[in-house]
Amino acid sequence: MNDLTEKKPVRHLLGLSGGKDSSALAIYIRDKYPEIHEKMEYFFSDTGAELPETLEYIDKLEDYLCKPIVRLLPDGFKENQIKKENSNEEDGLFGHYLKLHKNYLPSPQQRWCTINLKLIPFERFVGNDEAISYIGIRADEPDRVGYISSKPNIKTRMPFREDGLDKEDIFKILESSGIGIPEYYKWRSRSGCYFCFFQRKEEWIGLKKNHPDLFERAKKYEQLDEDTDIRYTWSSVGTLEELISRPDSVSSKKIIKKSKRLMDIVEDTDDDADGGCLICTL
Ligand code: SF4
C-alpha cells in the first residue's frame, strides 16, 4: 500500500467491531504504516448490546494500539445509558429504539438497528470532513463489499486487499501481536449484538450456554402484540426456545477444540461469505 498523496488534510478512520479483520487491520496499520497510525482515529460503535468478550477485546486492542478507541453513541446518548443496557436494565439504547419501532424487532430486511446504532453515529462522527475509512476486507474476498458511505466526503480504502493479504495472513498478525482472537469465537462466528438475528442455531445455543442471562434477555424481547396478534421473534422459524429445541441441525459447523490454531478455530465457525452484518462484524 502506498502512502496517500493528500491534496488537503483528511481524517483517517478505522472502525473496530471487535471482529478479527478490523482488529488485525488496526494492528497491521500500527505496525506497518506508523505514519498512518499516527493520524488514525479508531472508533467503536457501542450498541449497548455487546458481548462482554467484545468489550474486553476492544480494551485489549486499545492498550496495544496505544491510542484511544473512540466509543460512538447515537445522538443524545451518554455512556451511562449504554451501561443500562449492558447491566441488564431494559430501557437502554436498544430498548429506546425498539420502542420507537413499536417493538418490531430488527431483521435482515428491517435493519433499523444498524442504521440507528452504527451508520448514523458514524456519519455524524465524520460530519462533512474529508475522510478515508479503512476497511478490513481481504485479498481473498474479491466479491465482498463493506460499508460504502453514500456521503461523497467519505472515501474507502482496503489495505489488506491492496497489499494482497489473505485470511492466513490475518491470523498471523493476530497471533504474532499477542492479541489473539476474541473469546467468543469459541462458540460464535462473529462480533455484533448478543441478540443479532444473523446468528445460527448453534450460536444461540452458545449464547444460552455462555451467557444464560443474555439469552433470557433476548427471549424477553420476543413478544406477542395483542392488538395485531403478531409474535415478534428473532428467528423466522419461531421463538428462540422453539429454535434451539428443534431436532434438526441448522448448521454442520464443528465444535471448537482448545488445542487448535487460531485460524482453525475460526475456520470452523467462520461466516465470511454468508452475508451477515458487514458493518457490524468486519
Ligand atoms: S450486530 Fe446484528 S443486531 Fe446488532 S446492529 Fe448489527 S445487524 Fe443489528
Fold and architecture overview:
It comes from Candidatus Thiothrix phosphatis. It holds the Pfam family PAPS_reduct. Residues 15-143 form the Phosphoadenosine phosphosulphate reductase domain. This is Phosphoadenosine phosphosulfate reductase family protein. InterPro entries: PAPS_reduct_dom, Rossmann-like_a/b/a_fold, Sulfate_adenylyltrnsfr_sub2. It is a single chain. This protein has 282 residues and is of the alpha/beta class. The chain has a domain at 11-101 and 111-189 and 263-281: Rossmann fold, CATH 3.40.50.620. Helices cover 41% and strands 10% of the residues. The chain has helices spanning 20-32, 34-39, 52-65, 79-86, 93-100, 112-126, 159-163, 167-177, 201-210, 212-220, 240-245, 262-267, 278-281; strands at residues 11-15, 40-45, 69-72, 131-134, 154-157, 223-225, 230-232. The protein has a five-stranded parallel β-sheet. Helix 9 (201-210) packs across helix 10. The radius of gyration is 19 Å and the shape is globular. It starts with 10 loop residues before the first strand and ends with a helix. It binds iron/sulfur cluster. Iron/sulfur cluster binds next to helix 6.
Q: What are the key terms here?
A:
globular; 7 strands; alpha/beta; 10% strand; Rossmann fold
Set down the secondary structure blueprint:
Elements: E1 11-15, H1 20-32, H2 34-39, E2 40-45, H3 52-65, E3 69-72, H4 79-86, H5 93-100, H6 112-126, E4 131-134, E5 154-157, H7 159-163, H8 167-177, H9 201-210, H10 212-220, E6 223-225, E7 230-232, H11 240-245, H12 262-267, H13 278-281
Bound molecules: iron/sulfur cluster (SF4).
InterPro entries: PAPS_reduct_dom (IPR002500), Rossmann-like_a/b/a_fold (IPR014729), Sulfate_adenylyltrnsfr_sub2 (IPR050128)
Protein name: Phosphoadenosine phosphosulfate reductase family protein
Domain Phosphoadenosine phosphosulphate reductase: 15-143
